[in-house]
Design a protein that fits this description.
2 domains; mainly alpha
Amino acid sequence: MPDWILLPPIFFPLIGALILLPLTSRLATPSRRWFALSFLAFEIGLVLLNIAPGAHRLTISNWGLGSFTLALQMDGVTQLLLLTMFLPLAALWLVAPPRQPFDLFPILVLTAALLLAAADGLVAALIAWTLLDLALFVWRLAREIERATALRSLAIGLFAGMIFFAGAILLAPRPTDGASLIGLALWARLGLFPFHPLLPTRGADELDLWFARGIPTIAAANLWLHWSAFRVPAPYALVGVLTSISLIIAALWIWRATNATHAVGIGAMYALAFVPLAIAYGGDAGVAFALWQILAIAFAIALCEIAQRWSAGNRSEYARVAWFLGLLALAGLPLTPAFLGRVGVYVALAESGEWLFLLLAGATTVIILARLWNLGLELRGSELRDPARVEYAGLALAAFAFAALAFTPMLLAPALGIGDAAERALDRVIRTGNALGVAVGAVVLLLPVIGAYFLRALARDDRPSAHSFIARLARVGDLEWLERKVSRIGFRIGAVTRGAFTLTEENPTVWILFISLWVAIFIAIAR
């Protein structure tokens, strides 16, 4: 197959939505659902076309003088992540039909995320990065999701893009500094603390969770999976510090989660912090550790959204089943895709002597999961009814894909091009002589889940005095106080600037002095 075959799955969603939007607006809801599912099936087929004969790379332009190449790539890992974007979306649309399946605003987010996932090279990544920030900004304004922070999120995203660009430029003269800047920018792209306003954490409802967190997160995570393209080690010290702070902040924020959607966003932020950690500390197995965790996080977000959509219409127990499957995926328990990845990270930390970090990971996991246990038990609908067959099909599709990823990671690894990394992962976790490290990893993985179940009653305490200290700490961690101070400083600078321009408009003497100053400078340079 020619390399341009990677273009149709990237641009078909946008082109197809522009064509189909006028047609589907006249259809009834059941017909609209099947029309949208056919659209997704065709898109999945386009992604699968890229499997043969392997990885595809399309060079759009090449500026040899500056070593800047604009290119797109579609290797096995990227193909799997693109499928992970669309399979859960199909399951979500089966469970609850979309209000507007071809709404241009979420389609813009999806297209920009596809471009970012397939970007190869500095220029392509930076362009797709900026387009994703703009798409999220427009989508937020259209949905009125955290409208007050829309501009702040856009500014943070563009600023992170500049950090990424600066780090890539510095890689040749100063590899250590360049790697630190790139790591900081990619951390920001995941929407992790202190860059959490980049992705919505509050304001989104259960119908927007996948487009708010799932799809942008998958695209950003693919940049971490291709860290080897930078040819420098990941900044493990920076990642370790950021991960520690992020875990603590997530444990504080989960106590004041206003609803289940907000809690899932915080839980995803907590779990995503282990992805850069896998790249930095996992060594040759880091890519495999990180990929398995990304897949689990994506399906956890999708399953929790399915649970909320289902609970909104009925009181069946299947909503809780979906929620707890997502919770177990976030925890990385056995029989979930993240199991080998999470245990592998813990083993790597134990081998590095990071005992304090392991204790922190276990303690924060208890706090996060205790709150999520309660939210799952509280899922209730407005009426008691049996779900329709098509709704069962949605849950079955999500569960089947979830199980396939959990039971066949080693079978998929060679086809994805990470066979060596997967073998190193097995050497670290299964075929290992480090029994102590594996035992410590298993304890840190399993004990917090058991402890969270028995401590869920404490997390249910909603008295105002019970969490007042934690609430104050959470408000400090939100950094909204810092935003207000920076805004006040910006307003003062703006007022001074406007006053200075007003002075120049009303007093020509200022311009004469300004010109005289530059004449004096030129005379001094000439001498």
